[in-house]
Amino acid sequence: MASEAAPSASPVARCGLKVAFRTLGCKVNQVEAETVAATLRGGGAELVPEEDADVVVVTTCSVTSEADHKARKAVRHALGLPRGPLVVVTGCLAALDAASLTSLGERVVVEADKSAVAARVREVAGVPPCDESRITATRVGEGFHTRAMVKVEDGCDNYCAYCIVPYARGVPRAVPLRSAVSEVEALVAAGVREVVLTGINIGRYADAGAGLPELITAVAATGITRIRLSSIEPEHVDEALLRVMASTPSVCEHLHVPLQSGSDRTLRAMGRHYDTAAYEALLARARAAVPGLAVSTDVIVGFPGETEQDHAATIAFMERAGFSKVHVFRYSRRTGTPAARRADQLDPRTIAARAAAVRECGDRMRRAHLASQVGRRLEVLVERPGEGTARDGSRVRFPVGLGHPGDLVTVTADAVDEHGFALVAW
Ligand code: SF4
Predict the structure, then answer these.
(1) Can you name the CATH fold of 377-425?
(2) What is the mean pLDDT of residues 167-174?
(3) 160 lines ligand 1 (CB under 6 A)
(4) Is the pLDDT of residue 128 over 90?
(5) For the domain 263-373, what is the CATH code?
(6) Residue 398 DSSP one-character state
(7) What architecture is domain 141-252?
(8) Percentage of the residues of the chain whose pLDDT score is greater than 90
(9) Hey, which end of the chain has fewer CB within 10 Å, N or C?
(10) pLDDT exceeds 90 at position 180
(11) What are the structural domain ranges in the chain?
C-alpha cells in the first residue's frame, strides 16, 4: 500500500501511531484495507512498512484452504517482527474462525467488523479515539494517480455449493448511490482517471430503486475518464446493463463473467443459475451490443464428482467462447459448504493435472486475444513508466517516455511478447 500524502486530506496532528497493512485476497479486501488506512492516516497515524509498525493490520481471505494458510502465515510473520507489534486481524477468516487466529499469539486482536477496524487499532494502541465522521479519508493505493477501486456492494446470497463467501460476508448490501458517487467525485478531484466498481456480487446492486445500470450512469456523470466493472455474475449481464455499457463512452469494453465450468452437469451441482447455452447466448448478446468487448472469466477445476467428460466439456467450451483471460482455481473443500459434504471429492493429483490443462488453454486464449489486437489503435491509461492498461483490460508495454502516469495515450500494438504484453509503437 502506498503511503504518499492524500492531496485532499486536511492537515492533522500526528498521533504518533505507526501502522502497516498486509492485505490478502480479493479486490473488495483491498478497498476495505485502503479505507481503513485512509481513515487512520486522516486521524494522524503514519503508514509505515511492517518492520516499523506499532500495529499491523492483516486483512484475511478464506476462499480456499490455501488462503487460510496464507492468512495465518501473515499473522505469524507480523508476530515475529522485532518491534513486537500488535496484530489486528480482519477479513473473511476473522469472520469465520476467529478462534484459530487468536490462538496464534497474545498480541493478536480479531476485529471481524470492518467498519470498526480503524477505531479498534487506535484503541489497542492506546491512542485516544477520534471522530471518524470528520476525517476526509481519501484513499491511497497502488496506482492511486490512475486507477482506484470503489466498493459499491458487499455480500452475496447465491450460496454456490463450493463457496464460503456468503457465510463470511452475509447477504448483499449496496453502498448508497450518493456515497459511491461522492467517493468517485473525490477521486476525480484527486486526479484518478479510472475507477473499478467493485463488490462481491455487483449485479445485486440496489439502492432506492437504482440498480447497477443507474449507478454506472451516475458515476459517469462525475466526469471520471474511465469506468471498469469488476466481476459480474452471468445472470446480471442483462439488456439494461449492456445498453448502458454501449451508450456510456467512459465504460470500458471489458466484462469479467465467471463461467466456473463448461459442463451443465457440474454447473447444476455447483448451484449456479445458468447453463452453458445461456452463457453462450449471453456472450453473443454482449458482443453484439458492445463492439470490441473482451470477456474474461473464472473456472473452478475439480469440483466433487467432476468427470473426465465434464473436464473436456469445460475446455471445449472455453475454446468456443474466446475468452481474453481465464483465472483458474483448483476446487478447495470449505467446511460448512454443501460441496464439502459430498463423498465424491477428487484426488488432488487429478485436480492439479486438470488445472494445468485448463490453465494451458487459458494462456493460449490470452495470447490469441492479444494477437487479435496487433495492428489496432489502443487507448491506454499509463500507470507507470512504459506500462498501462487498454480499455479491454490488456496490459500494454511501450517505450518509456511515452506519456506520464495518468495520461491516456493512443498507440498501435505491433507485437505480443512472452509476458503477454502487447508491445507498441506510436
Ligand atoms: S456468486 Fe457464488 S461464487 Fe460468487 S460469492 Fe456468491 S456464492 Fe460465492
Answers:
(1) OB fold (Dihydrolipoamide Acetyltransferase, E2P) (2.40.50)
(2) 95
(3) yes
(4) no
(5) 3.30.750.200
(6) -
(7) 2-Layer Sandwich (3.30)
(8) 77
(9) C
(10) yes
(11) 18-131, 141-252, 263-373, 377-425
Q: Helix and strand tally (H, E) in the chain? A: 13, 18
Whether residue 426 has its Cβ less than 6 Å from ligand 1: no
pLDDT tens-digit map of 374-398: 888 899 999 888 889 999 999 888 8
Atom number in ligand 1 closest to CA 271: 2
* 241-279: pLDDT as tens digits: 999 999 999 999 999 999 999 999 999 999 999 999 999
Strand ranges inside 78-135, DSSP E: 86-91, 108-110
Sequence-distant (6+) residues with CB within 8 A of 375 are 412, 413, 414
CB of 166 closer than 6 angstroms to any ligand 1 atom: yes
CATH 3.40.50.12160 fits 18-131, yes or no: yes
Torsion sign across C-alpha atoms 67, 73, 74, 79: positive
Give the C-alpha separation, 153 to 150, whole Å. 9
Angle at 420 between CA 415 and CA 426, to 5 degrees: 35
Domains 141-252 and 263-373 share a fold: yes
Distances (CA, A) of 193 to 135, 151, 222, 403: 23, 16, 11, 14
pTM for this predicted structure: 0.90
Does residue 406's CB lie within 6 angstroms of at least one atom of ligand 1?
A: no
Mutate to test the pocket of ligand 1, among 26, 201, 204 (most ligand atoms within 8 A of CB): 201
